[in-house]
Recover the amino acids of this structure.
């Protein structure tokens, strides 16, 4: 009889400088920067290269909003004397194609091929810790000098009775819709809910937002968030605020009914979007085996973004606890740079205090540093400087006068924070980011020359507000008199 031999193959052992888990915004940034410095990098991704931002987050949502904002401009054109007949004709199939085309055009930047060409070893598999110094993926054993967990987040699904009995959308699926929803009900009035609600409303859907909190965009300055709420209402979105969802029911005709607490009439819609926050993706990682601490908010990090295992960092959306500066792509990128500083060069990795955030509605809302509430909570004296876009010549010319700049400064003028709601707020926030980050004063921004007529002048006007009391200063008035006498 022929003898059979069992061939037991030893697993391949890789010993790179860095092993990065997750190829979303955070993981890709770390991998590319490390590779550019000549470090050896293994990047492990179990699903799609580019993660959430490229595939189901920032990119498709901003492409959809771009189409929606274009439709609104057509509606608004009559105010400037431009006839557009019956208003915009929305071809939802083409809108969807535009969204897909934008994602496809950016995808090569995040592709495995591009990263392999940089010298990164890309493994398409789930990564799992086997002990404090080892990760297993695709039958390979990775014993890296340092690990970076960048495993991201996914939509948090609230426990609402009946939700599991109806089809519902999240940001993972809404960009695949083939047809425009007739009536989209959105659970959650945070950034995801508000941006997508305005996008669909402007593309012609009926939209209802149900938000458990008393207002939309609960983490933003209430005065500024109210401008967005007014804009949404004016465009016909229905806002149900301060109401919790009691249950969700399917209707015989395929529609969905959302029953609200407090005896409110049930809302019936064709589609339901759950946009009720995020949950860190931790399953499959086997964090316990590596001694990495996490709680319900995500992986806990300390100084230098290190986890409780000092060889392992965590960055991006998977990070929880108090340390997180928000779940944003630019935060993920910033943290990637910090990890490189620490892991490759042994330098301290101190997160910036000046992290901006933008909600891409129209008008946009952008913020950096302290807002009024945070300044009050800090218990130190401060001043508020405001400037309305209604008093900005360019905004008047464009017919986009909603909103204002609201800056928080110390009594000596040091800029502590700024929130802008208005046209292009996401672009206008940058001098304020620079000011907060570099400890600049209102006089620094007031002293710059701004081209006329630009929206940027609203920054100077707000900053000049700080200097206005000086015009009443008796010493300065006496000085003017003295100079006058000197001829
Ligand atoms: C609708 C929407 C719009 C948004 N718009 C903006 C915006 O305009 N601006 C902005 O700054 N932010 C925006 N965000 C937030 C932004 O998308 C996230 O902050 C960012 O994508 C987080 O990047 P990340 O790399 O931490 O995580 P992710 O992009 O989620 O990447 C994590 C990757 O890790 C992989 N992974 C997980 N576990 C494992 C494992 N065990 N093994 C291997 N791979 C694993 C996942 O498959 C995933 O690809 C938006 C979010 C949403 C939902
Ligand atoms: N422009 C951007 O930069 C951008 C855009 C979208 C998302 N994001 C990121 O994604 C993160 C997640 O966004 P999000 O909007 O999903 O979360 P979020 O936490 O900002 O808002 C979720 C909202 O849902 C509400 N909610 C929760 N459960 C509810 C329930 N059962 N009924 C009614 N309301 C309920 C909450 O009160 C909250 O207001 C954001 O924090 C942000 O970091 C950024």
């Amino acid at each position: 009889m022929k003898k059979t031999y069992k061939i037991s193959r030893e697993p391949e052992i890789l010993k790179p400088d860095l092993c990065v888990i997750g190829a979303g915004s955070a993981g890709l940034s770390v991998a590319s920067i490390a590779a550019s410095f000549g470090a050896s990098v293994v990047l492990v991704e179990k699903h799609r290269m580019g993660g959430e931002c490229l595939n189901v987050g920032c990119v498709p949502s901003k492409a959809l909003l771009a189409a929606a904002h274009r439709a609104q401009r057509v509606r608004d054109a009559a105010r400037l004397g431009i006839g557009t007949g019956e208003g915009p004709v929305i071809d939802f199939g083409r809108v969807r194609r535009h969204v897909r085309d934008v994602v496809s055009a950016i995808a090569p930047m995040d592709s495995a091929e591009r990263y392999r060409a940089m010298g990164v070893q890309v493994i398409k598999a789930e990564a799992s810790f086997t002990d404090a110094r080892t990760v297993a993926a695709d039958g390979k054993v990775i014993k890296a000098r340092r690990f970076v967990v960048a495993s991201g987040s996914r939509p948090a699904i609230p426990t609402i009775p009946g939700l599991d009995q109806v089809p519902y959308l999240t940001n993972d699926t809404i960009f695949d819709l083939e047809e425009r929803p007739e009536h989209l009900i959105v659970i959650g009035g945070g950034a995801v809910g508000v941006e997508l609600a305005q996008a669909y409303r402007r593309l012609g859907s009926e939209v209802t937002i149900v938000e458990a909190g008393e207002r939309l965009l609960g983490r933003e300055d209430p005065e500024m968030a109210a401008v967005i709420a007014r804009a949404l209402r004016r465009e016909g979105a229905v806002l149900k605020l301060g109401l919790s969802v009691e249950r969700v029911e399917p209707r015989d005709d395929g529609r969905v009914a959302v029953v609200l607490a407090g005896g409110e009439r049930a809302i019936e819609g064709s589609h339901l979007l759950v946009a009720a926050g995020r949950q860190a993706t931790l399953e499959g990682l086997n964090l316990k085996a590596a001694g990495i601490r996490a709680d319900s908010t995500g992986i806990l990090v300390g100084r230098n973004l290190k986890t409780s295992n000092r060889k392992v960092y965590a960055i991006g959306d998977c990070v929880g606890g108090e340390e997180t500066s928000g779940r944003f792509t630019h935060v993920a990128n910033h943290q990637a740079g910090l990890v490189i500083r620490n892991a490759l060069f042994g330098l301290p990795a101190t997160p910036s205090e000046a992290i901006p955030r933008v909600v891409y509605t129209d008008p946009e809302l952008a913020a950096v540093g302290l807002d009024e509430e945070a300044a009050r909570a800090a218990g130190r004296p401060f001043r508020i400087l405001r400037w309305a876009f209604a008093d900005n010549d360019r905004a008047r010319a464009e017919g986009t006068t909603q909103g204002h700049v609201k800056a928080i400064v110390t009594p000596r003028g040091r800029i502590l924070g700024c929130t802008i709601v208005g046209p292009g707020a996401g672009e206008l926030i940058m001098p304020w980011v620079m000011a907060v980050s570099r400890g600049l004063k209102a006089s620094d921004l007031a002293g710059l020359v701004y081209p006329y007529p630009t929206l940027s002048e609203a920054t100077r006007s707000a900053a000049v507000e700080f200097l206005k009391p000086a015009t009443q200063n008796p010493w300065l008035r006496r000085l003017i008199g003295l100079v006058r006498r000197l001829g």
